[in-house]
Write a structure and sequence with these properties.
It is a single chain. By secondary structure, the protein is α+β, with helices and mostly antiparallel strands. Helices cover 19% and strands 31% of the residues. The longest helix is centred in the C-terminal third of the chain and has 22 residues, at 164-185.
């Protein structure tokens, strides 16, 4: 009896739209498998997921629901703080992040509404609840040009500061260069004050 067979399960990387529906490409399917809104089971854009296929309706695209999130593609998000009397949440700038991230009361006491922050997704295992997060960095007031530029940089995965070992290496190089530079100038023609195009 086909009704007693376990659902067919596939694994793939999910693409999530701003309307909180997903699509998973799979071998043997002409079109990506559609995951309707409400069946993502906490999966986010780029996550590797396992999907249970639903019985297929003739003429319709294959659909399914996320059974489990195998691995997260992204765990940090840029967003804007919204504080209410009883709770604090971060609304992600990335529209594909379809759930607000809740910040625990104790961690939220120094945050202000409309601050732009970098938040780490700490826990999200229940699709009926919002994810919990931890503030990594407060960037400043949303809408400020420098804050928005920093937000774009961080959202693309770039760091705003160099690691301490890189700074130390650069200082060492600068110190070593000063000594060599004086000796090298004597062996060369000095064009440092000449306007030069290369």
């Amino acid at each position: 009896d086909s009704r007693s067979e376990p659902p067919k399960r596939i694994r793939g990387v999910i693409s999530v739209t701003s309307k909180a529906s997903g699509y998973v490409p799979a071998e043997g399917f002409e079109e990506d498998i559609e995951i309707p809104a409400g069946f993502l089971n906490t999966a986010l854009h780029g996550d590797t997921v396992e999907v249970n296929l639903r019985p297929r309706v003739r003429g319709m695209r294959a659909s399914g629901e996320v059974f489990s999130v195998v691995s997260r593609a992204k765990e940090t998000f840029i967003g804007v703080v919204e504080k209410r009397t009883e709770e604090c949440r971060v609304m992600a700038d990335d529209r594909r992040m379809y759930a607000d991230i809740i910040i625990p009361k104790q961690a939220a006491k120094d945050l202000k509404s409309q601050e732009k922050v970098l938040v780490h997704l700490e826990k999200w295992d229940n699709p009926q609840k919002n994810p919990e997060g931890r503030i990594i960095k407060i960037l400043g007031q949303s809408g400020d040009t420098e804050v928005e530029m920093a937000a774009i940089t961080l959202a693309q995965g770039f760091e705003m500061e160099f690691p301490a070992e890189v700074i130390a290496a650069a200082r060492q190089l600068q110190t070593a260069r000063k000594g060599k530079e004086a000796a090298e100038i004597e062996n060369r023609r000095d064009f440092r004050d000449s306007l030069t195009f290369t």
